[in-house]
Amino acid sequence: MGDYYMGIAFHKKTDKKYVQYTVRLEENILNKIKQIAKEEDISINEVVNQSLQFAISDYEKQKK
Fold this sequence. Notes:
The chain is an all-alpha fold. It has a domain of 37 residues. It is 53% helix and 0% strand. Helix 1 crosses helix 2. It is extended and about 60 Å long.
């Protein structure tokens, strides 16, 4: 029988709370998000969160 190795996932400690929520994205937008994630070596989730935070900040700035 072959050898088995157990991998341990490393998770950064963070004070952020994440909630799982399902959304539908346009295919071309998801493809661009995937491309950015690959180029920047970050997760798709991080690209989405940063993009949404930017959009919210811009929205709030425009409301003032």
